[in-house]
Give the backbone structure.
Amino acid sequence: MGYYIDLKGISIDKYKEILKTTELIPSWKILESDIDKNLDIIKKSNIKNLDELLIALRDKDKVKEFSKQTGLQENYLAVLKRVVNGYRQKPNRIKDFTCVTEDTVIRLEKAGIKNTLKLYDLILTDEKREVLSNKTGINKDEIMKITKLTDLSRIRWVNHTFAYVLLEAGYNTVEKVANADYRELYETVKQLNKERNIYNAHIGMRDMKMVVEAAKDLNFEIEY
């Protein structure tokens, strides 16, 4: 359990099936070719799961070395590494959430908490949230807001703005996003942004489907 997906729990065989059923964006399309063959080559290199794969490809020299050992193209391995690394996306900074008060940001930073990863273990239960509230002087409603923003920030591709959008749309936990009909979520978010003009970027139906699928990969260990 934890903020990120446990990559040790995703075997190479399991990742084959994930790739086969995932709608890949254009820059990832190289991964669609020879999925079984390429991942079997990786598996035969004594790599059992995605955590071990990232270790094997941890820098450019390792990618080059692995390419020579396996015959897999460096470009393929670089894209594969980037896609797998996406499971451990950069956490959102608390100060970037426009709905979080400056006073809350200051109080959290004084406690050494600057991003959602740092905050995660401190907001898992009512008891922990109460401890954090007492320690920082942040009221319980604000604590619950940053709890839900932290939860949503764990979803792949969800930046600080989109976490806020999901919160305001009523899909305010990872579990709610995971259980959503992506088409309904798309329409709800589209209407919300039309009314309030929260973001300028285009978020399409396919993007929303990917977000819902990404949420399904996460645990639901935060207690509400």
The mean pLDDT is 95. Residues 182-196 form the longest helix (15 residues). The two ends are 17 Å apart (CA to CA).
